[in-house]
Design a protein that fits this description.
Radius of gyration: 15 Å
Number of helices: 7
Distance between the termini: 29 Å
Strand order of the largest sheet: 1-2
Helix content: 55-70%
Order of helices and strands: EEHEEHEHHEHHH
Structural class: mainly alpha
Oligomer: single chain
Length: 129
Amino acid sequence: MELFGAKKINKNTLLSIELLDDKKKKLTKECEDLLIEIFKNFDFDKDGFWNHLEINSYFKTTNGSRLSKDAFNEILESFDTNDRQELTIKGFIDMYYLQTLNYKEETINDFLKNYDEKTLYEKLQPKKI
Protein backbone atom coordinates (compact mmCIF):
# COMPACT_ATOMS: atom_id res chain seq x y z
CA MET A 1 0.00 0.00 0.00
CA GLU A 2 1.45 3.32 -1.10
CA LEU A 3 1.03 6.68 0.59
CA PHE A 4 0.33 9.66 -1.62
CA GLY A 5 0.56 12.75 0.53
CA ALA A 6 -1.57 11.85 3.54
CA LYS A 7 -3.79 9.58 1.47
CA LYS A 8 -3.26 5.83 1.40
CA ILE A 9 -3.34 4.50 -2.13
CA ASN A 10 -4.77 1.02 -2.38
CA LYS A 11 -7.07 -0.90 -4.66
CA ASN A 12 -10.19 0.64 -3.10
CA THR A 13 -8.78 4.11 -3.73
CA LEU A 14 -8.17 3.15 -7.35
CA LEU A 15 -11.69 1.73 -7.69
CA SER A 16 -13.10 5.10 -6.63
CA ILE A 17 -11.53 6.82 -9.66
CA GLU A 18 -13.89 7.36 -12.58
CA LEU A 19 -12.69 5.49 -15.66
CA LEU A 20 -15.79 6.11 -17.77
CA ASP A 21 -17.03 9.37 -19.22
CA ASP A 22 -20.77 8.69 -19.09
CA LYS A 23 -21.67 11.80 -21.12
CA LYS A 24 -19.48 10.75 -24.03
CA LYS A 25 -20.06 7.00 -23.51
CA LYS A 26 -16.36 6.27 -23.59
CA LEU A 27 -13.37 5.93 -21.29
CA THR A 28 -11.99 9.03 -19.63
CA LYS A 29 -9.08 10.73 -21.38
CA GLU A 30 -6.74 9.64 -18.57
CA CYS A 31 -7.83 6.01 -18.91
CA GLU A 32 -7.45 6.13 -22.71
CA ASP A 33 -4.00 7.71 -22.35
CA LEU A 34 -2.99 4.90 -20.00
CA LEU A 35 -4.25 2.27 -22.43
CA ILE A 36 -2.35 3.91 -25.29
CA GLU A 37 0.81 3.79 -23.16
CA ILE A 38 0.25 0.11 -22.36
CA PHE A 39 -0.45 -0.65 -26.01
CA LYS A 40 2.79 1.02 -27.07
CA ASN A 41 4.75 -0.86 -24.38
CA PHE A 42 3.62 -4.21 -25.81
CA ASP A 43 3.92 -3.17 -29.47
CA PHE A 44 7.40 -4.69 -29.68
CA ASP A 45 7.88 -4.12 -33.41
CA LYS A 46 6.51 -0.54 -33.09
CA ASP A 47 4.19 -0.90 -36.10
CA GLY A 48 1.09 0.41 -34.29
CA PHE A 49 -0.68 -2.97 -34.16
CA TRP A 50 -0.58 -6.02 -31.93
CA ASN A 51 0.26 -9.27 -33.65
CA HIS A 52 -0.31 -12.72 -32.13
CA LEU A 53 2.90 -12.62 -30.08
CA GLU A 54 2.20 -9.13 -28.71
CA ILE A 55 -1.41 -9.94 -27.77
CA ASN A 56 -0.34 -13.09 -25.98
CA SER A 57 2.51 -11.30 -24.22
CA TYR A 58 0.07 -8.74 -22.86
CA PHE A 59 -2.43 -11.37 -21.70
CA LYS A 60 0.31 -13.45 -20.11
CA THR A 61 1.40 -10.36 -18.15
CA THR A 62 -2.12 -9.42 -17.03
CA ASN A 63 -3.72 -12.86 -16.64
CA GLY A 64 -0.77 -15.14 -16.02
CA SER A 65 -1.28 -17.23 -19.16
CA ARG A 66 -1.61 -16.96 -22.89
CA LEU A 67 -5.04 -16.79 -24.50
CA SER A 68 -6.74 -19.94 -25.68
CA LYS A 69 -7.19 -20.17 -29.43
CA ASP A 70 -10.93 -19.52 -29.01
CA ALA A 71 -10.39 -16.45 -26.81
CA PHE A 72 -7.79 -15.12 -29.22
CA ASN A 73 -10.14 -15.56 -32.18
CA GLU A 74 -13.01 -13.96 -30.26
CA ILE A 75 -10.92 -10.83 -29.68
CA LEU A 76 -10.02 -10.63 -33.36
CA GLU A 77 -13.65 -11.12 -34.39
CA SER A 78 -15.07 -8.67 -31.85
CA PHE A 79 -12.67 -5.74 -32.03
CA ASP A 80 -11.02 -3.58 -34.67
CA THR A 81 -8.15 -5.23 -36.55
CA ASN A 82 -6.10 -4.40 -39.62
CA ASP A 83 -6.03 -6.48 -42.81
CA ARG A 84 -3.39 -8.78 -41.26
CA GLN A 85 -5.73 -9.65 -38.35
CA GLU A 86 -3.69 -7.60 -35.87
CA LEU A 87 -5.42 -5.72 -33.07
CA THR A 88 -5.54 -1.94 -33.50
CA ILE A 89 -5.24 0.55 -30.68
CA LYS A 90 -8.93 1.37 -31.27
CA GLY A 91 -9.76 -2.31 -30.81
CA PHE A 92 -7.74 -2.42 -27.59
CA ILE A 93 -9.47 0.69 -26.20
CA ASP A 94 -12.91 -0.64 -27.22
CA MET A 95 -12.12 -3.95 -25.51
CA TYR A 96 -11.34 -2.11 -22.28
CA TYR A 97 -14.39 0.12 -22.59
CA LEU A 98 -16.63 -2.96 -22.57
CA GLN A 99 -14.69 -4.59 -19.75
CA THR A 100 -14.73 -1.43 -17.63
CA LEU A 101 -18.44 -0.89 -18.25
CA ASN A 102 -19.16 -4.32 -16.75
CA TYR A 103 -16.12 -5.20 -14.61
CA LYS A 104 -14.27 -2.10 -13.43
CA GLU A 105 -12.36 -4.09 -10.82
CA GLU A 106 -10.97 -6.38 -13.52
CA THR A 107 -9.70 -3.34 -15.42
CA ILE A 108 -7.98 -2.03 -12.28
CA ASN A 109 -6.49 -5.50 -11.69
CA ASP A 110 -5.10 -5.51 -15.24
CA PHE A 111 -3.62 -2.04 -14.77
CA LEU A 112 -2.01 -3.12 -11.50
CA LYS A 113 -0.12 -5.83 -13.41
CA ASN A 114 1.56 -3.01 -15.34
CA TYR A 115 1.88 -0.21 -12.77
CA ASP A 116 2.27 0.13 -9.02
CA GLU A 117 -0.61 1.68 -7.05
CA LYS A 118 0.92 5.15 -6.71
CA THR A 119 1.85 5.44 -10.40
CA LEU A 120 -1.56 4.18 -11.48
CA TYR A 121 -3.30 6.65 -9.16
CA GLU A 122 -1.28 9.53 -10.57
CA LYS A 123 -1.91 8.50 -14.19
CA LEU A 124 -5.68 8.11 -13.72
CA GLN A 125 -6.28 11.39 -11.93
CA PRO A 126 -8.16 13.96 -14.02
CA LYS A 127 -5.80 16.60 -15.30
CA LYS A 128 -6.42 20.06 -13.94
CA ILE A 129 -6.69 22.74 -16.58
